[in-house]
Amino acid sequence: MVLAQLGGSISRALQQMSNATIIDEKALNDCLNEITRALLQADVQFKLVRDMQNNIKKIVNLDDLAAGHNKRRIIQQAIFNELCKMLDPGKPSFTPKKGKTSVVMFVGLQGSGKTTTCTKYAYYHQKKGWKPALVCADTFRAGAFDQLKQNATKAKIPFYGSYMESDPVKIAVEGVERFKQENCDLIIVDTSGRHKQEVALFEEMRQVSEATKPDLVLFVMDSSIGQAAFDQAQAFKQSVAVGAVIVTKMDGHAKGGGALSAVAATKSPVIFIGTGEHMDEFEVFDVKPFVSRLLGMGDWSGFMDKIHEVVPMDQQPELLQKLSEGNFTLRIMYEQFQNILKMGPIGQVFSMLPGFSQELMPKGQLDSTNPKLMNDSRIMRIARGSGRQVRDVMEMLEEYKRLAKIWSKMKGLKIPKKGEMSALSRNMNAQHMSKVLPPQMLKQIGGMGGLQNLMKQMGSSKDMMGMFGGGDK
Ligand SMILES: Nc1nc2c(ncn2[C@@H]2O[C@H](COP(=O)(O)OP(=O)(O)OP(=O)(O)O)[C@@H](O)[C@H]2O)c(=O)[nH]1
Predict the structure, then answer these.
(1) Which residues form a coiled coil (predicted)?
(2) Is a pLDDT exceeding 90 seen at residue 404?
(3) Which of 122, 153, 441, 468 has an alpha carbon 20 to 30 Å from 228's alpha carbon atom?
(4) Is the pTM of this model over 0.80?
């Protein structure tokens, strides 16, 4: 089961419960059983799921809830909190500081994506102005050094390794020393992986760790390993001081539930996830937005951060000014889609939108806010000119209308200062939110009153946006 399916199953269970006329013990139990089944199918460890179920039952005491309380919302909040708790070990991992030398050692089984992830991690920090370096202490797998060398060269990151030396400890120490002298602030040591947990692997890891004294040991785990995740993560933790986890291959048919088990086994947080083979297919992992997405609640704050990353800084004030005036044009949609295409995986999703392609964008009409100008004969000409079906062009225009409608409701939104994209979400109040939320979702929350209450409970509208972003679909 891929994560999206897990999220879908949980949302369905919640939906079914809210469809029940009365939310009694039976409705709650049915819902929890459904969620338990979904989590187990996604390879979350049995004990974790059972604990979660018990905790929710303890928190949600239906008898104590006075009539008028929105039981569905309270149950949903309890599930949200429990899932967050599963993924949050309660203490943050060591975070390297730019400009101050840190040594980070990567460990994991062979094929987990460790070497690829080392470079992704280095590249991520390099883009933020760090001075990373890579050390290949994998002398077990022939070709490991070549792979690291190739990746590092592509990303223009200094690297160290040897074809001759067979002692990983010696290479690791030499590499770390060299890069300390070169004032690198993030020295990354890649260690060998083996097919399975072997005594020799753990002993070697322990020795490398003892010799290089890493500030952080990162455990890299393939998200598709299923129920084995807990034991595997625990075995690593028992040999070296694992401080954080990176889960790879979240893009494939991953049973992402393993991530939850790894957190429980290592009592360390997941800090990044790998979402593809490419260097930039790597995302910071944040618990709340992740769980929001899992429960089908969207991830507005993450979306805004992404936009912040891809919309060129000098275009942001102008774009927001236009949007706040209610001028959402086809050109804006076109330019933003172009920016979104730079986002990588999300870009792939957008490029799947029916009829979306560069040739298809109706040039000359891009700056109008009046889609009616797009009459039948023009639509036919566009379809012919781009080799698409008329239906494709119509669907693209429908998508534009949908987005334009959302943005027209945002008219008058206070524009944040230059570069302060996240201020946009802070400026959203319950009024704005209620206009953007799909009517059925608003109803579930308990209308405007429920929304205001929920926003108060959540502490800030930013959290709220994190939970319920996404717009109407
Ligand atoms: N789809 C996808 N593939 C990935 C991801 N991360 C790594 N891979 C692929 O997984 C395969 C194994 O990755 P490596 O980095 O060679 O694995 P490793 O764990 O370093 O292997 P050893 O060095 O032998 O321990 C490669 O084909 C990578 O391209 C990811 O996030 N998504």
Answers:
(1) none
(2) no
(3) 122
(4) no
